[in-house]
Hints:
Blueprint: H1 11-17, H2 31-41, E1 53-58, H3 61-81, H4 87-97, E2 109-116, H5 122-139, E3 143-146, H6 151-154, H7 157-163, E4 169-178
Antiparallel strand pairs: 1-2, 2-4, 3-4
Amino acid sequence: xxxxxxxxxxxxxxxxxxxxxxxxxxxxxxxxxxxxxxxxxxxxxxxxxxxxxxxxxxxxxxxxxxxxxxxxxxxxxxxxxxxxxxxxxxxxxxxxxxxxxxxxxxxxxxxxxxxxxxxxxxxxxxxxxxxxxxxxxxxxxxxxxxxxxxxxxxxxxxxxxxxxxxxxxxxxxxxxxxxxxxxxxxxxxxxxxxxxxxxxx
Length: 201
């Protein structure tokens, strides 16, 4: 087991500091660091201790560009089917229609968290692993972003064969990883919405 690197932030500081990064430096994240982040991922809670996750690490920019090109029309088709005319979706349509747009934001590393489909709550477990990994990355000065728009491509049978994903697994969370090349302002979030609160008297 690899020891985790010493970091300067405590867990709450890391939670407050985490951002979705969509602009990365050319510097590649080394594979040792990637494995440290995977170690953090597998320490996540898991239903009935099944640990249904598996990982694919892609650090080939040509392959990532091909996957981006494959994903964009599939996602556009999905968005168009929603018949949503909001500004948000119109902006997405414009971006994904641009042939120069890379849905992975030219990151040097893409990590796919896959789940064993027969496991109970495998999707929830994979998302918990993703949060662990993203927080660990933030604490180490790295940036991440979940690329949900890529899921239709990653669960396409041809892409699954290309990436060596067996029928036993399904891609749940695609995450870009790299060194941030932008300063992101603190995220503004609404206060917690508490539907009910019951306190013993």
